[in-house]
Here is the input.
Amino acid sequence: MAMIDIKNPENVSTAAVVSLGLIGGWLTARETGIRPLGGAVLAAAGGWAARSWLAKTDPLTTAGLTALYVGAFGASHPLAKKIGSWPAVLGVTAVAGGAACVLSDLK
Here is the structure.
C-alpha cells in the first residue's frame, strides 16, 4: 500500500488555506447547522497553515499569523451584526489571507 504524499510545507499556499478555513468553516457551520463541524474545518486549516508558516518563516511570524487567523474568526462575529455575514467573512478573510500571502507565501 502506498503512503500518502503530503505536500512539502514550504510549497503550500497558506493564503488559500486561510481562505478555505475561514470561508469554508463558516459555510460548513451555516449549511449543516453544526457549529463544531465548522470549527473543525477552521481548526484543520489553521493547523495546516501554521505548519507551513513555521517552515517558511520564524516562530514569531507564525504566532502572529496564527493570532490574526483566530482573531479574524472572532472579529467576524460582531462585524456580521453590523454589515452582514458574507461581507464580514469575506472582509476578515481578505485581511488574514493577504497577511499570509505577504508575510509567508511571497518569501
